[in-house]
Amino acid sequence: MARVEDRGDRLIIWNGNAARRGALSPELYAALAEAMRLAEEPRVRAVILTSEGDFFCAGGDLNVLIERRKLSEAARRAKVDDLHDLIRALRACPVPLIAAIEGGAAGAGLSLALACDLIIAAAGAKFTAAYVKAGLVPDAGLTASMARCLPRPLAMEMCLLGQPVSAERMGALGVVNEVAAPGEALACAMVLADSLAQGPRDAQRVIRALVADSYETPQAQQLDAERDAMARAAGGVEAAEGITAFLEKRAPEFGS
Description:
This protein is α/β, with parallel strands linked by helices. The protein contains 11 helices and 9 strands.
């Protein structure tokens, strides 16, 4: 089942439940919550979300959802709130969050992928907003994520028709950062994590927060946030090393 592998400067969240194509499970919720807690530690430079099976995440388990029909609407709303709290936690992750996707992501699994900062997907992987085919509607922040990264007609096509979109098309749109060979998504994500680990830790954390906040922050407020962040960064040790290295035409050594 789902678990967190701690590799020091990076955490790998393994989504289990392969028999149900990585459908959401209490164990995945717990693993994600544990990883978000560990990500607060300065040693952690990246978090990778991937799957143990051949499919990243199929979203909500329909067997669970059919049982949930017996609950009151208020109780069903509370269950969705639990999922939304998880998405909020991912959005607030202090370090870059990388999705390494084999097979595909569907429904809330697509929401999980789009909640990440960087996406590596294996060739042939499919992205599907599958809700409409079950008479359901998107949740887990999917419509907001789509509005941020997809053209409106494509978002409508995916949500209204439930048609899958290939990793290659998502890559052409800039939603997927890299299309890897099948079976190599995690390896490529690890290379990306290596690159992040060589960069300035504090600057990366601030950059991630600035970019994440920019989608919902008014421009005037965002300008103030950038001003304050730049003023702090310019007086820090990372900037001292980075600027000196640039002027000396050498690679910076930011340390860990």
